[in-house]
Amino acid sequence: MHVNKGIGCASCHGRVDEMPLMYQENTLQMEWCLNCHRNPAANLRPTSEIYNMAWAGPTSTKPVVCTSSTKGGPTAQNVSCEVTTEEAAVPAGYTRFTSQIELGKYLTAQYHIRTPNELASCETCHR
Predict the structure, then answer these.
(1) Please, which residues have CB within 8 angstroms of residue 101's CB and are 6 or more apart in sequence?
(2) Is 4 helix (H, G, I), strand (E, B) or coil?
(3) Which of 41, 59, 80, 116 is 20 to 30 A from 66 via CA?
(4) Whole-prediction pTM value?
(5) What's the average model confidence in pLDDT over 9-20?
């Protein structure tokens, strides 16, 4: 579920590519999970960056440009994003993001992520 909705592996598991021996980086206890569920935009990323352990989010020097289509299929697959340079022109139909919060809010809408109240509800995980 999380990967399909734009949460990268490193968000929960840490930088496993830098671990000589695998270990649990985060508690994965309910309160830790709820902190993300209350503000998912802080951790959302383009699906093309899900497996990028070094993803740091957009900045003014490394903005991300995104566009979405209305073709069928999973909602996250309808969004196309690219990391660019600050000098690069924004292609027609794309939106430029220079902060993770801006990008996260956009992806929250595009990926049809539920509201923080819905995500923090007990029924979200405990069905």
Answers:
(1) 41, 42
(2) helix
(3) 116
(4) 0.89
(5) 94
